[in-house]
Prior knowledge:
Layout: H1 2-12, E1 21-28, E2 37-43, E3 46-52, H2 60-75, E4 94-96, E5 99-105, H3 119-139, E6 145-146, H4 149-161, H5 164-172, H6 179-203, E7 210-211, E8 213-215, E9 224-227, E10 230-234, E11 241-243, H7 245-257, H8 261-272, H9 279-306, H10 314-334
Antiparallel strand pairs: 1-2, 2-3, 3-5, 4-5, 6-7, 8-11, 9-10
Amino acid sequence: MTAERDLLQRVLREYSPIYELRDAVLLGNAGGFSGACLWRVTTAAGVFALRRWPRGTITADQLRQLHGVLEKVVLEGINYVPLPARTADGRTFVEAEGHLWQLEPWLPGQADFWQHPTAGKLQAAMQALARFHLTASLVGEMAGFGVSPAFEARQRELRAMLGPELERLERAVPAGHWPEMDELADQLLARVRRVRIWAQQLLDCRLPQVPLQPVIRDVWHDHVLFEGERVTGLVDFGCLGIDSVAVDIGRLAGSLIGENQARWREALAYYEKVRPLSPAERWLAAWGRVTGTIGGGLVWLKRHYLKGATWDRRPGILQRLRHFIERLDQLRASGLTSRPGGALDARPNVA
């Protein structure tokens, strides 16, 4: 503990004296799975989150660009994004012990949508995302039109996971050393098998070209903080990059409401009150939501059974698998998988 406190003090000394360490609580990864380590630190200036980025996940130049986008959107009035503090010499991060570190405000609120899923909270979440997108498009780097890089990658990866990798997974389960994981893996694989042909047809759809701009790319239930029905924070911008807003819409709405088609339409309507979507963006968001439902659980199975990954937060992994099993059940119940050719809604023209 003394060595850890000494390290934290050394990092904080790079900042103004008002950030002198008074207390620190190690949160580990704070419930996330990115590998980042967080401390809740108390200083003379208040309470902050001190984030240590995992080695090799982000470069100093990438972190400068990320912080540059956050600074611009905050200056434009987006007050629910944690803007990293600047060091005494003006930097937004510190390099120590082979890691990059950043100090950011501790945002109030809880990620409790699943515990209290109201229409008001869904509206607040979707409109907070839309305001971020709208602001980022004005102050960030625009990249014209193109196919979503994230969704192109998902097409490739999910085709592989629904092909030979699915048979490899089925042979690898059960492994026997984690019975709870084995049980959920069997359930998830059975559900994926039922929608496999439809999913492969969906993956064969040609993705439309859409506007590309700075987006979060990893915004989901646990990264949206609420006080009552008010969004008080969007957190964890480690994956921020140039892509389509559809990536964020499908990821966030899917994590909040799953495959409930009525609530999906509500979520899009809430978002579009702030930032209208083109037919191509609307279709692409639905494509992203559904393919996320199909592939989300398979990603965790692949990491564990084929790549040997283990995690300290086993209950969190099991919760994620249950979440995707429930969404796969909702997907079949929705009737989407009975439509020919992987159809979703009205198919947009593609370039």
